[in-house]
Amino acid sequence: MKILGIESSCDETAASVVSDGCEILSNIIVSQIKDHALYGGVVPEIASRKHIETIVPVIDAALKEAGLTLDAIDGIAVTKGPGLVGSLLIGLSTAKAMAFSRNIPLVGVNHIEGHLMAIMLEKKVDFPYIGLIVSGGHTSLYLVKAVGVYEVLGRTIDDAAGEALDKVAKVMGLGYPGGVAIDKLSKKGDPRAIAFPRGLLDRDNLDFSFSGMKTAASQFIKKQPADVLPRIINDLAASFQEAVVDVLTKKSIKAAREHNVKSLVISGGVACNSRLREVMRQECVHMGGTAYFPSPLLCTDNAAMIAALGYHYLKRGDRAGLGMNAVARWEI
Ligand code: KG4
Ligand code: ZN
Fold it and tell me: pTM to 2 decimals?
């Protein structure tokens, strides 16, 4: 079964063809990062307009790269939420138009659920596993029992981890998205140089809080004399990154221990972070388990994960009607 996936929830326009839920035949992603960089974050109106310009060429490119025409597509899976409503509607309307004009089965899938299942495209991970979704918009822990069967274990009560990294990077004068720049500078810095707070680490729950950590780091940076900042910038990046990684890792391991689960799957943009990958792998080995990370291109927003998940729903008979709409719900 060949499924065309379409993703347009934020600032990536993406289309992909996936065969039988696991073999990627094409994976086209057009990022709008440079269009939003000037503003230090995603501007919803610009995002929607860019999706309008890009969506049809991206779908054409995905079909071309897969060596297929629409006639060979058995189903269309499209992100229905959560995300920016104007952005989502571009993908949804395009998918609906294609599906109903060509009589192709259509299904809408949840973006976060796509991130949780992206690992299926590269590795077979047995259920149950702990899923940590960590990106610019989300930081949540799930117990994943089967495709479509999840339990929310904890989530951020304020900012997402990526949002905090981006904000601190902005105060440091690094570009957007700042998480990548922080990762790079950290390689030359001392993670123990500055002791930043660790949000909610002392609490006996699996929720996260990055807002206080972000504020503490921003205030620390603003207090530094202009000539000092360049000298400590690597240590600053490494220390803040370490605080974020520490919280994400400890809460994930706590979740695994509490539920007696040995596999952890970490996905979303921040899962590209090299220190998170290193520490999470070490701590999982220490626990007698394994940490699984999709490759970076499948961690950030992509349509292959949407097609892979859509395959399972289409196979069991799920069908979306013309009335399917964008949903703003932020969790599964
Ligand atoms: O999943 P994603 O592409 O978009 C959503 O937010 O849904 O994630 C983007 C986030 C940004 O906050 C970005 O700074 C962060 O992922 N990010 C990283 C790295 N690469 C991307 N954060 C830390 N280290 C990285 N290497
Ligand atoms: Zn995402």
Answer: 0.93
